[in-house]
Write a structure and sequence with these properties.
The complex is a heterodimer. Chain A is of the alpha/beta class. Chain A contains 25 helices and 19 strands. Chain B is elongated and about 50 Å long. The chains are: A alpha/beta, B alpha+beta. Chains A and B meet through α2, β11, β15 and α18 of A and α2, α4, α5 and β4 of B.
Chain lengths: 631, 161
């Protein structure tokens, strides 16, 4: 049983002990060395847990267990280079570590203080090896506020959280009046990080000052495909989110907090559960927290695979055990929310910012960012970009900095085409937006939106009509069916897009699509429907030529839409080795008739029968001579 | 009430009792049943209705609304291909097509021998390692079309290594 923390003084004393402990670990003043491994979903799927256990075994076998500790931390963010192993106090970072590398790291680094050069990150521009995390270009422009503690502390250990400033913000808030807490958050300029960007302090101030039950709900139903920042925050530092929730709960006078988390995030749910339990054990959750009259309990509810539940009123219905359909507003949740009581719904990343604001003050938070968007934003960089991962940058960072400086540009020397932000509710930004500073208002002006922070980069090989169709399929599937503009409109838009990508489109379809899109946008009940046409409207605005090529020329310029492209063998490059023919599942590849042997080659060249070809692309993968291409 | 075995009745009753102090326990009960049995057939819904007082119509409405709840049993191995945006732009469609071709089932279906269910997943948040495939909870990173067949073979021959 852990020691109870019953007052501000006891909290401060405990924090002091834990801070020293954690600092000793980072600086090595405890005389030990510490191996930490990333325990995020990405790295765990690359066996980081097995690697951790092997480290423990090898270290034990080598008799180093009193000199070296091993533990896991939250996401490092640089997912494409995982799994990561970091060694303190030297702060050496090894990337893409495999099970078979463990012995070498123990032998060289832990026993002989010799860096294992081949596992260091290599800067692709300078080709130089980088030893420390902070020297990697990917991390240089980042500021970690919402991701505070992620990649540094063990998310399953409350002592490490306490050593990393956890609950300092809560203590400060509890010493203030509720109104002052709301004012502080208002002054900070914090806006909702779930996508819409509504000022958090104002949302809190809408909750009436009445007695009776009230709720603070944390929206962890991160459904946007391509967004994983909330998952990483919950996995990396669940304590910070709970602390933010408690501060919000105190400000609005709630007694209970609910986390609504996607069932797809089992690790996040497990760590949240552990964190809640640890906090209950020391009395940081429950009655009379820190000796005040603030009583607060936290509960977890799981989603069950419905995107629309990310909409706050649908989410409340889901917690109430109903179909997750949105409710008409007003009444707003602040007045009539969960079980008819005043309720405030905040996103995970929003709440993760709150402890910082309390700890460091509104002015410091407001000094970061642009005029109307304060603080930082976490983005999940994905798609066709070298440095895939999670990044936190100040508002106002330009897309160019995000894609080229932090993201390291587009792989394989391909051309940047578009970056999709805001998920299925957002839009595509193109090369002409590269110098746009990222904030809520600029992204909307540019035809997209911040959304939860997914940022998917696309290159010349992505077809924008196909991308629009992809999102429409998603939205059509996830539309709850309550209101007809969304239920019927998304289906019709999907049909038109499917027609176009199959080469059966008419020029009139473009106008129909535009009219329909605007109707769905203005007439749908909730945010899902109102933003559903955005991917279509924004790709039509920037890539009309691609739509026209699909319809008029029956060609897919990016060679993605199967009906509108063919595989072709260059007869003069073909060596006639027949590797492609052997791998063809449709028996579509034969000799050219009459036989043709290219100059300098010995065997007759092959050709593809377009009528038989199923366009699986197997041939292109097998050809060693680059003789096959898409047209 | 049709053919529920005594042990199942006992366990489902136990699951319902687990949440009897909750104001609105339905989602939690259904999640636990789905996890335990892999599906929630009508007989079970009737039993839950009897235990909780919630009408079968309402329970059926909830079961069919959420994609995690299933009315039919799933296969022994559940293959989920992530079709989130990051995976999609990196070729996840080709990966799921390959699974579909080899297993002879469409996404959402279960093979006749009950060995495999193929699901198209919404983003599982593993965008850093796209395209990702999840089989019985284990995530396989950076999948390519060539890796599909060996992976299926592995599970045919008795599961994960």
């Amino acid at each position: 049983m852990s020691e109870l923390i019953r007052s501000f003084e006891e909290l401060e004393a405990k924090q002091a002990v834990c801070t020293k402990c954690l600092n000793d670990k980072f600086t090595g003043s405890d005389g030990k060395r510490h191996v930490v491994l990333c325990g995020g979903t990405g790295c765990l799927s690359s066996h980081s847990a097995e690697i951790r256990h092997k480290f423990m075994d090898v270290i034990k076998a080598e008799g180093l267990d009193d000199k070296v500790t091993v533990n896991q931390v939250g996401c490092f963010g640089f997912c494409s280079q995982g799994p990561f192993v970091k060694i303190f106090p030297e702060d050496t970072l090894y990337k893409m570590v495999k099970l078979e590398d463990v012995e070498e790291i123990v032998e060289k680094d832990l026993k002989n203080n010799e860096i294992v050069e081949r596992l260091l990150y290599v800067d692709p521009r300078t080709q130089e090896k980088v030893t420390k995390q902070d020297d990697i270009e990917f991390y240089k422009k980042q500021i970690r506020i919402a991701l505070h503690g992620c990649g540094a502390i063990d998310p399953e250990n409350i002592d490490e959280a306490l050593g990393a400033e956890a609950f300092k913000g809560l203590a400060i808030a509890l010493k203030k009046d509720r109104k002052e807490v709301i004012q502080e958050v208002l002054d900070s300029g914090l806006r909702g990080r779930g996508g819409a960007g509504f000022p958090t302090g104002r949302k809190w101030s809408f909750v009436p000052d009445t007695d009776g039950p009230k709720y603070l709900v944390c929206n962890g139903d991160e459904g946007d495909p391509g967004a994983f920042m909330d998952r990483s925050i919950l996995e990396g530092n669940p304590f910070a989110v709970i602390e933010g929730m408690m501060i919000g709960g105190y400000a609005i006078g709630a007694q209970n907090g609910y986390f609504y988390v996607r069932a797809e995030y089992p690790i996040a749910v497990k760590r949240l559960n552990l964190a809640i339990k640890a906090m209950e054990e020391v009395g940081l959750l429950g009655d009379n927290i820190l000796g005040t009259d603030f009583c607060f309990r936290v509960h977890i509810r799981l989603g069950a695979g419905a995107f629309v539940c990310g909409e706050e009123t649908a989410l409340l219905n889901s917690i109430e055990g109903k179909r997750g359909m949105p409710r008409p507003r007003p009444p707003f949740p602040a007045v009539k929310g969960l079980w008819g009581c005043p309720t405030c719904v905040n996103n995970v990343e929003t709440l993760a910012n709150v402890p910082y604001i309390m700890r460091e003050g509104a002015a410091k938070f407001a000094s970061i960012g642009t005029e109307k968007s304060k603080g930082t934003k976490v983005f999940a960089l994905g798609g066709k970009i070298n440095n895939v991962g999670l990044v936190e940058v100040p508002m106002g960072t330009t897309l160019k900095e995000l894609i080229y400086d932090i993201g390291g540009g587009i792989p394989n020397g391909k051309e940047f085409k578009a970056i999709q932000t805001g998920g299925p509710s957002g839009g595509c930004l193109t090369a002409k937006n590269l110098d746009t500073p990222i904030d809520y208002d600029n992204l909307i002006a540019a035809g997209s939106m911040m959304g939860s922070g997914g940022a998917i980069v696309m290159d010349e090989d992505n077809c924008m009509v196909d991308v629009a169709k992809f999102y429409m399929e998603f939205i059509f599937d996830e539309s709850c069916g309550k209101c007809s503009p969304c239920r019927i409109g998304t289906k019709r838009m999907l049909e038109i897009l499917t027609r176009i990508t199959e080469g059966k489109g008419q020029m009139e379809d473009l106008e129909a699509l535009q009219v329909l899109a605007n109707n769905v946008k203005t007439n749908s009940l909730c945010g899902l429907g109102q933003t559903a046409p955005n991917p279509i409207l924004s790709t039509m605005a920037s890539f009309m030529d691609e739509y026209v090529a699909h319809i008029r020329d029956k060609k897919c310029p990016a060679h993605v839409c199967k009906n509108l492209m063919t595989y072709v063998i260059d007869k003069d490059k073909c060596f006639g080795c027949q590797m492609c023919a052997k791998g063809c599942p449709a028996d579509a590849i034969h000799h050219i008739e009459p036989e043709y042997v290219a100059p300098g080659k010995k065997l007759p060249a092959m050709c593809i029968d377009a009528n038989k070809c199923v366009k699986c692309g197997a041939c292109i993968a097998t050809c060693k001579f680059g003789a096959i291409s898409k047209q | 009430m049709a053919h529920l075995q005594e042990a199942a009745v006992k366990q489902i009753t136990e699951i319902c009792d687990r949440y009897k102090n909750e104001e609105t326990p339905l989602m939690m009960i259904l999640s636990d049943i789905q996890k335990e049995y892999g599906y929630i057939p009508l007989e079970v819904q009737e039993l839950v209705s009897e235990k909780t007082g919630i009408s079968v119509a309402e329970i059926y409405g909830v079961v069919t609304f959420y994609s995690f709840f299933s009315l039919k049993p799933k296969g022994k191995n559940v293959v989920g291909c992530c079709l989130g945006t990051a995976c999609y732009v990196k070729g996840a469609q080709q990966v799921i097509d390959k699974f579909s071709e080899i297993l002879g089932i469409k996404p959402g279906e279960t093979s006749e021998d009950g060995m495999f269910t193929l699901d198209a997943l919404r983003c599982i948040g593993a965008c850093g390692i796209a395209p990702a495939v999840q089989i019985n909870g284990t995530v396989y990173p950076k999948m390519s079309v060539d890796q599909v067949k060996p992976l299926i073979e592995k599970y045919k021959n008795g599961g994960a290594a």
